[in-house]
Structures are given as structure tokens and as C-alpha cells.
Amino acid sequence: MADDLKTADAFATSWNNLPPGSVYTRAQFEEWFAPLIRADAEGREVLELGCGNGSLLFHMASWRPAQLEGIDLGASVLSARRNLSSQEHKNWVVNQGDLTTYRDRPRDLVYSIGVLHHLQNPRVGFESVLANTKSGGRFHCWVYAHEGNGVIRWVVDPIRKVASHLPWWFTKYLVATPLVIPYFFYAKLISRWRGLPGLPALPLYDYSLWIADRGFAFFRHVAFDQLVTPQTVYLDRATIEGWLAQPDRIVPGSTYLIFRNGNSWKFGGVAR
Ligand SMILES: C[S@@+](CC[C@H](N)C(=O)[O-])C[C@H]1O[C@@H](n2cnc3c(N)ncnc32)[C@H](O)[C@@H]1O
After folding, report:
1. How far, in Å, is the centroid of ligand 1 from the Cα of 52?
2. Contact in structure between 78 and 8 (CB atoms under 8 Å)
3. Helices 216-228 and 2-15: crossing angle, nearest 10°?
4. Nearest CA to ligand 1 atom 15
5. Helical H runs in the chain?
6. Each residue of 68-81: pLDDT tens digit?
7. pTM of the predicted protein model
8. For all residues of the chain together, what is the average pLDDT?
9. Which of 1, 11, 73, 172 has its CA 20 to 30 A from that of 122?
10. Nearest in space to 52 (alpha carbons), one of 107, 143, 113
11. Backbone angles phi, psi at 127, to 5 degrees
12. How far does the centroid of ligand 1 lie from the alpha carbon of residue 175, in Å?
């Protein structure tokens, strides 16, 4: 928990220094949640564990849940509240707390996107997702994969281990910004030349096609997000399969495990 607090404080510097609104487009939000759709949230009680600045809550609110709650350990709850205030839908609350120990009434839909891989103990975070999901309710998570992330694990992660100890502004403007410039052009070129033979063998090919739709500010946000955090692990398929193999807690046959953008795992199911 004390170590998760360091991570949450680091993320708050990222989230609290962004322009207002969601950092994600509507299309990104919908793709992140697929196979879930609006009907899985509309009129239901929905909980996000590790909500950052509310960028996903912002879009989730427009799916009209009966009640929407976000939990984050860090001061990013301030920007999350600001972002949700501009939403027409008012049935939301953002609370500061530790998701690993958070227990309240179980919800119809619980999700945790981009969070479990930053916890000291990702498995405990996943257990909390399950513990907060109603029997018959759905859960949905997304994490960095071990698979497909060789360049990130071997090149970016060693830089993160140093950069995460530097002042946030130094990491953002003097580390993340210069580092992401070559990647920005790499992704844009991959996108322009998509379909050329041999190109799919390049590192981060699918991920580059995904991110290339966005402008430089989003690239820098993602790079800063990667480099500012003191704790990141890359989870392999076998680990997630092990988490999902709990027939006493998860309805067998309800689960999905999707390899997303060639370097991450999206997974979920129905709680027992
Ligand atoms: C990469 S951000 C993801 C935010 C959001 N889900 C999104 O996709 O935009 C990870 C978030 O997890 C939060 N976090 C990390 N450890 C936590 C914990 N133990 N309890 C609650 N939140 C935590 C961090 O503060 C940070 O805002």
C-alpha cells in the first residue's frame, strides 16, 4: 500500500497536468471496453478501480449507468471530479482510496484499465475486482502484456527505473518528450505504409497502428505515463489464464482473454 501510494502520487503529477476532458477519444473508449457494450452499463451500478483523471469515467457516464463510482489512491481524484462535473449525467462519485482493500456493495460492472500492472501485487488487485463484482455481474480488465513488449521491457523499462526518481517535470519535458519524438515518426510511417510486405514484423507494429491516429500530445502523455511510474510489471498469458481459472468465483465459459494491439491483454467474465 505504501508503495502503491508512491505510484499513485507519480500518476497524479501526470493526470493533474493535463488539459480538461478525457485523454481518450470515444472510439478508443469503445474499443477498450469491447466486447462490452453500452447495454452492459446502462441502468446498472458501475465501478472503476484506479480511475486516474476520470478519462474513462467521462465516457462511461454517457452510457447512462444508474450509478457510477471511481476509486483512485492518488490526488488525481481532483482532476477526475473536475472532468466529470462537465458531464450532463450526475449519478457519479469519485473517492480516494486503495483499490486493493476497497469493499463496498458489489456492482453490476467493475472494471480496471491500465492499473493492475502498476500494483505491488497485481493478483490482489484482480481479487478486489472480483470481490466488488455482484454475483452475475461483469468484470473487465486491461494490462500490459509480457508478449509483444520486448522493446519496451528492454529499452523503455530500464529508463523508467531511473526516470521515475526524477522530478516529474524533468521526466515529462526532458526525458519523455525527446524520447517519444522518434517513436511518433516511426508510428506515423508504419500507419502510412500499412500493408507493405514485411512491415508487420516490425516491433510494436499493431500498437503503432492504434496510436498513430492520435496527435503528438497523446504520444507524449503515454510516454510520460510509462516513465513516471515507479512500478510496472508485464503480465503473460499464463498468469491471466491462472487468474481466470477460478470456477468457484467466475462462471466457467463466461471468460474472454483478448491479445490487444499485439502487446496487451484485455480480459473479463461474469462473477459467480
Ligand atoms: C495508468 S493509470 C490508469 C487510469 C485510468 N484507469 C485510465 O485508463 O485512464 C493507473 C492509476 O491507478 C492508480 N492506482 C495505483 N495503485 C492504486 C491503488 N492501490 N489503489 C487505487 N488506485 C491506484 C494510480 O493512481 C493511477 O491513477
Report:
1. 5
2. no
3. 160
4. 8
5. 2-15, 26-33, 55-61, 76-85, 122-131, 150-151, 157-163, 168-170, 177-192, 205-211, 216-228, 237-244
6. 999 999 999 999 99
7. 0.95
8. 95
9. 172
10. 113
11. -60, -35
12. 22
Q: C-alpha grid cell for residue 203?
A: 516491433
The CATH number of the domain holding residue 36 is: 3.40.50.150
Among 115, 120, 132, 227, residue to substitute to test ligand 1 (most atoms within 8 Å of Cβ) = 115
100 CB within 6 A, ligand 1: yes
Q: Is 235 in the pocket of ligand 1 (CB under 6 A)?
A: no
Same domain, 20 and 119: yes
**Residue 29 shares a structural domain with residue 137:** yes
54 ligand 1 Cβ < 6 A: no
> What is the best residue among 72, 78, 231 to mutate for testing ligand 1's pocket, by most ligand atoms within 8 Å of CB?
72
54 and 119 inside one domain: yes
Per DSSP, 132 falls in state T
Cβ of 11 less than 6 Å from ligand 1 = yes
